[in-house]
Amino acid sequence: MNNSMLMAGLGWLGTIAYLTGYILLCFGHIKPSQRLYHLLNIIGGLGLIGHAWYLQDTSNILVNGVWAAVAVFALLRGNGMKRSKME
Description:
Blueprint: H1 3-26, H2 35-55, H3 58-77
Helix pairs in contact: 1-2, 2-3
């Protein structure tokens, strides 16, 4: 597997994580205070940062870095300590 395929896979992982978290939230399957929501945002952010880094896309690195950092902060602060039904 070459670097291009690996980075594309990382980007898709991030995309799927972001969308899964948002869809679960919108349809009431999880709440924003649940750990799963924040973990999906962290995974999504890191995946998309990896892909953006490979492409040297600084605006996407910034926005996904901030998004992931907010999710990490929320977990550390205790906002994401409720377990979801899916965990």
